[in-house]
Amino acid sequence: MQPGRFNRLLLGLVALTLAALAWNEFGMNSVLAITAAQPYSIWTDDDRREAGGRTVAHVDRVGSTFVMTCDAKPGYEYPYCELAIALRAMPDGIDLTGYRFLRVWIRHEGPAMQQSVRLYLCNFTPSYSKLGDQQSLKVHEVAFDPGRAGEPVDIDIAKFSVASWWISEHNVPMDHVGTELDKVSVLRVGTGNNAPVGLHKITVDRIEFHGKLVSKATFRLAVLMAWMLGIISFVTLDAAATRRRLKAAEQGQLSLRRINAALQLKTRDYAEQAGRDPLTSLLNRRGLGDDLLKRSKEGEARLFPMSLVFVDLDHFKNINDTHGHAAGDAVLRKVAQTVGLQIQRSDLLTRWGGEEFLLLCPLTRAHEAQAIAERLRRVIESIDWEALALHVTASFGVAEAMNAADLSAGIDRADAAVYVAKRSGRNRVEVHGTKAADDGAQASVE
Ligand SMILES: Nc1nc2c(ncn2[C@@H]2O[C@H](COP(=O)(O)OP(=O)(O)OP(=O)(O)O)[C@@H](O)[C@H]2O)c(=O)[nH]1
């Protein structure tokens, strides 16, 4: 990824993260409100049944308010009244662990100046609780002063602790005395113990549990996980993209190398083609020049003295005229192939032009070349032309060049010798420097 785009993406993600954290801090609130307008089932408890006292509690729904009257009477040592609200049936209850505090609108009017209120959260705890038995629920309590004006009071949920009387009644071991608020079935509002004798009235307008839809810790963990996941995905995707780019580059280089190789091959082909005769595949004059140049780099001593042998087919025009141009071509190919098979690897056979071939024999003296030419003459003469029913012969002119500077003149001398051979009746070998050849050459000049 380009650095500019990466930076913009990173900045965007940081901004998004900050916005999400702020939303979690200041918003994302979850509120559970409890009022008498809701169809919770309710009842009251007082000291008559459990403690044999004479206190009488009674509750009414007045609009969205619970109104509990409590006639606290002497009898039981600690007279009390309680309003019980069934939040959800046992054993599920309501999970209150995500809530941080309660906001309550409760008033307590009674015989004393300051009337405290107790709140109880009763949790279904499988080790102690039995289905249907209210008394077996684990009781968490908090006491607070609601004030007189009926303003809301906030109570931190951490202030709730397991009631000491519940711990002693159930003989609870130390590791079970901690709060458990994951299955709260019943919420109670009471006078607390030791309510002064007289008429009490507890009005519950509203109770709210406040928390976060997602707790801060969970949310931060989720943000952290999202970042880690993002980083891992980014690194993985980036590595894959880099691998893809590398592969593409490698493939590009490979095809470039292939194209280059093919082009070089072609260049070589063209160069070779330019130096070869397409009909016989022998070197042409240009090819001969290149080849000699290459060989001369190893030193003239590896080439000279060199014999030059002209091979000129006899009456070739007649073959063309009688049998057609294609037959003429076939004859040229066959002669080239036959002579090619007869000579040494170090010899150079070229198509000089038309029906004329020039054979160069390095490190060969004229008398040796004469013998070679004679052999070639006989071979050509005895080629079996099968269906063509031809009798093809060639005339040979041999000359010797002593060094590179003499090469061109040597070729001329061989040419002159072949001319002599033609004049002397064809199908024969003439060597420049012999009397016949020299006389013939003289005559051709005249
Ligand atoms: N089929 C064919 N004919 C060619 C080719 N190159 C040259 N020729 C023919 O070769 C013939 C050469 O004729 P001439 O120069 O009169 O020589 P010749 O008929 O062999 O007579 P001598 O050399 O005097 O024996 C010409 O008719 C050319 O057209 C070729 O590549 N293919």
Automatic annotation (TrEMBL):
One cellular component (GO) term of this entry: plasma membrane
GO biological process entries: cell adhesion involved in single-species biofilm formation; negative regulation of bacterial-type flagellum-dependent cell motility
E.C. number(s) listed in UniProt: 2.7.7.65
SMART domains, per database record: GGDEF (SM00267)
Signal peptide per UniProt: none
Gene3D superfamilies (UniProt xref): 3.30.70.270
InterPro entries xrefs: Diguanylate_Cyclase, GGDEF_dom, Nucleotide_cyclase, Rev_trsase/Diguanyl_cyclase
GO molecular function, one term: diguanylate cyclase activity
Catalytic activity line of the entry: 2 GTP = 3',3'-c-di-GMP + 2 diphosphate
Pfam families in the record: GGDEF
Residue ranges constituting the GGDEF domain according to the UniProt record: 304-434
Stored NCBIfam families: GGDEF (TIGR00254)
Full protein name: diguanylate cyclase
Organism this protein belongs to: Piscinibacter terrae
Lineage, broadest ranks: Bacteria, Pseudomonadati, Pseudomonadota, Betaproteobacteria, Burkholderiales
